[in-house]
Amino acid sequence: MLPVDVILKIAFLLPDFKDVFALIDIFRPQIAFEPLEDLYQLGLTHDHSSLWPRLTLDCSMNDTMSITLYESILKLYSHVLVVDSWYSVDWLKKHLNPTTTIEWMAQEFPVTLENIHDWADLPITRLHLSIERDTPQMWKKALPRMHHLKSLSIGNSSGDIEDIYKIVAESAQITELEVNPNGFEVDNAELQHLIEWFHRQPVRVYADSFTNWKLLDYDLRQELCDVMFNCPTLDRLALTDCDLDDMDFSEFSFSMNTLQLYEFCLWKDDLKLLASRLKDSKLTHLELDGYLVGDDFHGMDSMDYWDYTCGMECLFNALPSTSIKSLVITGDDVWTDNRFYLIPLLFPSNCRLEKLAANFSYSSPKSRIVEALALSIRKNHTLYEFHLLKSKISIVDMRLLIQSISDPSRRVKTKRLKWITRISHPEDESTLKSLEEFAIECGCEFVQEEGTETNY
Fold first, then answer.
1. Cα(169)–Cα(186) distance, integer angstroms
2. What is the largest CA-CA distance in the chain?
3. Last-in-domain residue among 326, 345, 373
4. pLDDT tens for residues 141-159?
5. Rounded Cα–Cα distance for residues 4 and 31 (Å)
6. Residue 250 structural domain
7. Rg of the chain's alpha carbons, rounded to an integer?
8. Helices vs strands, H then E, count in the chain
């Protein structure tokens, strides 16, 4: 019989709660350890995602039975997620393991002048905060006092968030900042705070949206780009509405692992320059979205269109010489009738891509485009996952893609095709079921999800 502490260690190494549940079920008759039994009981009635791999606490669990069971198991966890206004700070302090860290999703900031010290003392390392126009300003006093905070996310906020940048720049421990403003425009002062932050801290994650990027001071924009694209500690950089076509790329090292550029303008020679800089970069994941959309695309003359296509060709040709293994291309359609010949460039003999996500046009693609893609995938021996994003496609063409990715000659351990459809255009369940069964017959996994921009 294994000791209880060994069983616990094994359980908390398992990534899937169904395996944890099965393990506890095996040992239940042989051990008398109340927290494991209580975890098992919660697993019978609660959503497993709220129990594993981290414990989620929200106000729906205020009933006496749930509270009692949670008090029993809380000390088992090294990380918990607190959603909204959990009813008691004192309860958390009493039952948390001293080494446990907290991720807090605060739609409302439950801090008053009287209890600000109680919240600041909690080991909150990650905070997701929504700031609306009517949000009390107490968050400005609370954030600088949260000395455990390393990651700050400001979600879809319509309030005045300019102080966020100053607080982050002056923080001694925040290394991750994600901002999704709704109406707020970054000013030159915020750029200066960001530059200071990159100079002072080993920044790991930065994501932001700039609706007025071109109106800001050029020298400050260039300096911010210099510190962002050359930051040696940066893991992920995500920029939205940040047109880089007037920035000097020549000194950018692209030292981050993940680069995500959304709703931006980067074309002609800029694409070629980006391709040349990526060859010496550390990038493993690249996302490009909206690089030519709307009037910018349709208003191009034939020479501009040709230059842009050549830019994409340079980018694709450069991929085997980079460290990029995951590529997402959305926005303007890469694989159109006029550019479908670019498809084989993604899959040369020395291809390194392991995961590819892309979208066709909003209307169903021509079969020859799908055939070209299917043929390229069939000949490839590195790609194990392909995501088709919010694209209409005939069932015949989808079956062709399933056959290509599952081809027996492809020497990859995993073969997976994910179809992310629009929530507004759900697919027929019987059709999806038939595609799943067909994929199993072919020897690959087919997954369909209704999704947003972020579940690539």
1. 15
2. 76
3. 326
4. 889 999 999 999 998 777 7
5. 7
6. 243-326
7. 25
8. 16, 15
